[in-house]
Amino acid sequence: MRIDILTLFPSMFDGFLNESIIKRAIDKKLVEINVINFRDYSLDPHHKVDDTPYGGGAGMVLTPQPIMDAVDDIKTKESRVILLTPDGKRYNQQMAYDLSQEKHLIIICGHYEGFDDRIRSIVDIELSIGDYVLTGGEIPSMVIADSITRLLDGVIDKDSHLNDSFNNNLLDYPTYTKPRVYRGMEVPSVLLSGNHAEIEKYRQQEALKRTRDRRPDLLEK
Ligand code: ADE
């Protein structure tokens, strides 16, 4: 899987790409993530990428040329082009699974007050990571690249993501590690019993209980 991220702020990705599971996935060539500064595609003599909005209004708007030329340059028949915007479709775990099957994603990070609406004409999917407005698409693009990368074969143990929250519309069951008693709080005894059928039953019940308490909307699905 290759993920190309178009941004005006490439250094925001330094930590993301150089730590932990994402770094290991890149090193093992399980994913290729390229961060591309679309300012490099600007045909303006001063490499301008934004301008004032037609009709007036506050702030600057990203012009279509640098982004659309960058996409034309890197797009292949196998590419899916994603635009990050608060008015996109709300992202979820099922979309992460679906996108993890793709070969090439191009993710466009918007910034400033917005982007020229004509950019939408070259986009396959518009995504929002939630009902709040961020200063740009960089953090959402990391959210999406991270959630997809961890699902790729060999990145993490398959059992780990089979038990993820949101699989089967259930939240995760509670987990514990050593010590057995901490600040007076004991690990549930069934987990120490060695009875795998009972442990499985306990975990299913707890997952259901947690979902009912915290996210009853998931059970209605
Ligand atoms: N850009 C700004 N806010 C965003 C959000 N919530 N989701 C995706 N892109 C965004």
Key phrases:
single chain; 221 residues; alpha/beta; Alpha/beta knot; Trp Operon Repressor, Chain A; 2 domains; five-stranded parallel sheet; two-stranded antiparallel sheet; 8 helices; binds adenine
Q: Describe it for me?
A:
The protein is α/β, with parallel strands linked by helices and 221 residues long. The chain folds into 2 domains: 2-156, 3-Layer(aba) Sandwich (Alpha/beta knot); 163-219, Trp Operon Repressor, Chain A (Orthogonal Bundle). The chain is 32% helix and 19% strand. It contains 8 helices and 9 strands. The protein has helices at 14-17, 20-27, 64-74, 93-99, 138-149, 158-162, 196-214, 216-219, and strands at 2-7, 32-37, 50-51, 61-62, 79-90, 104-109, 125-128, 181-182, 185-186. The strands form 3 sheets. It has a 5-stranded parallel β-sheet with strand order 2-1-6-5-7, with helices on both faces. A two-stranded antiparallel sheet has the order 3-4. Strand 8 (181-182) and strand 9 form a beta hairpin. It is elongated, with a radius of gyration of 22 Å. Bound molecules: adenine. Residues 84-86, 110, 128-130, 132-134, 136-137, 140 line the site of adenine. Adenine is lined by residues 84-86, 110, 128-130, 132-134, 136-137, 140.
